[in-house]
């Protein structure tokens, strides 16, 4: 059997560790507070004193009611709005240790002694007038004009074992009252409603109408008490009761109910179990909503990553195409190459041609004019231009896509992301140098036989390096001898020259290895360029994932259901998060059609400052 405390703690920690858009983050924070303030302390000790939170709208007479129940002035009523600022928790001295400990409402600082209406600390008052087993907490008005008071009232109500709602004939139908009561019904919490200041005229219709509304809200089993209007106090009943209490007989039914509950251990335990199970169920519903939001956040970040990934994949493919279909071998390059090796009588007397080629190349080293270096420079420059252009184009396209898919995200991004890295020229040059070094090393390592080494030394490593580059860049790479004859021209001379030294199969393998090495180096460079955009999507992945929260919630549900059988509704059917609209090649068209604009609207707030699967570019 799963330990409910451990399971709920794991869920609490997962929810606290995730990141969400602002509104969802506030909701998740409230759930975490409820775990800390009530659910975990209550699961730890079901027999601990019950906490009855007395809530109500401004001027409903909560504080006067508390003082009347205790026959002691522990809370300060008044006409200044908001009337209740500092929450007051009243407990029997025998229960004070539980409420003074950080186990209950750990986020609130405790205070004792005289009240301070400007403070939001939790004031603890000990009195023997309240029996052990039950405490009363006079909460700030939940419709307070003070935002902090309203938030505190909501937090305290979420920590209650029992809700005592105080209202009046003038305020009982207020929508805000019913928002809280609907929440209570959804949680299955024990609710007591006190209809205060009930005059004779209202007594004929209001109680009946109140019960009707409660039944419609699913609270037909809730207990309702009425407190008559005191004529002698008139409209100033609340303020004039500061020096005297409401007559004891007016609050006697409510007082009796509370005392009997406090003294009945089994009843207290039943209330605590029912309420904590209901609180968990309500929390789980909010966790499910947070998971949906988090999943959409992750899905969007993944889609943005995938979009940029595809752009850089296209850039890589463009470089591959440009360096394998002969585009690199412009007429200027081939003219200079022909000056180096010549092509006359190549296929009629190759040994004689080879000797002539050696002589031709030798002239380069003896200081006679030879354009070998010019060929090498042309190839390097062409490859460099293709790489830089592809990186710049990919950056520009990525920046445009981000602007369409997530304008707020781009608004806060570094404009440098609109271009390739500042040192892209140096990176491309380094890539080419290292690739050429790899070719040179490959030629040296392949020349194992004495005759091969002699021919390599005769021609020179630079000559053979350029020859292999030409093979890689030409469409004839890897062709057989017969096919070379068909292809003809200067582009195949480099391949034939290499084959004379190493053999046809070896040259084919060398060219394939050189191509693979170039592709891998391009992949590394473009991946680094693409990963610059992770600065935009990484924050969307921070914290606990949707999957981890979902799993923790399932464990918590199982553990609570085992501990309190039949108290939780069946888990909702797991529905897949709707797929986000796919981007199209023409982003402007998509934006005008509303596809991507709608996507951004759905995810508004995802890109707050608070707020992957990695892969290669190819």
From TrEMBL:
Domain named G: residues: 53-196
Name of the protein described by the UniProt record: ABC transporter
CDD domains: Ras_like_GTPase (cd00882)
MF GO annotations: GTP binding; ribosomal small subunit binding; rRNA binding
A GO term from the CC aspect: cytosol
Biological process (GO), any one: ribosomal small subunit assembly
Superkingdom as given in the UniProt entry: Bacteria
